[in-house]
Amino acid sequence: MRQELLSLPKGLAEEVSRNLVMVARLIDEDAEQAYAYSRIALRLASRVAAVREAAGFAAYATQKYSEALAEFRAAKRMTGSVELWPVMADCERGLGRPERALAMAGEPEVQKLDKAGQVEMRLVAAGARRDMGELDAAIVTLQSPELASSSVQPWTARLRYAYADALLAAGREDEAREWFAKTLEADKDGATDASDRLAEIDGVEFVDAAAAHSDLDDADEADADDEDDDQDPAEVAAAERAADQAEYYDEDDEEYEPADDADVDLTDELVVVEEDERGKA
């Protein structure tokens, strides 16, 4: 791509490059925004193959399959490369033309693809079979040396997942479970939801621990509110007064000096008071 951009004036090349970087950065997180950046790059440099390819992938990510197919075809014409052949076939599927996708799977271009491209083409062809309601044919299409291999390649998880999913759709649940488990073994990056599919087959339901904890807290608060509602208002007021007194008479307060019961004789006090009263009389 760098070599292609060198054909542009320096300022223009930098502007196009910035937009292509944003496409690559956003395409998995915000496809619509990535598409917007791709349109800017396309307007600036429509004769650059890398720009047409990026625009094609951005349109593909937003399910604008007709537009994506046109951009991929343009990029193919400019470069003469067939590496976009599988995704072009998948655009045909997206446009509701699985027959064309199958026809492309039988074209000579497929033989020029590398191993990863050929596996991708097989996945697209199997998907086209499923689009046409031919589940058994889709299963057979996926059966290949790459599927049977025990070695893990970049495409292994996706290939095993597609095979397991086709088996499940055909009602072959035991086999599907086996292949979802094999998918999980190969899917080190978590690119598929094989673990969820396995749990679904086994009838296991996962509970969000954080949500469950929040629900328990809400329930405890509700119970506390109910208890408050059931208390006698007089009892509540008495408890509050007792709490106020306990707070006022703080034993840790330097000004608080509790009386020593051992040094006080209440009887003597009463006698003194009575004698004083008689004297006054």
From TrEMBL:
Coiled-coil zones: none
Ranges where the record places region Disordered: 211-265
Compositional bias of kind Acidic residues: 217-233, 247-265
Organism: Streptomyces katrae
The protein's name in its UniProt record: Tetratricopeptide repeat protein
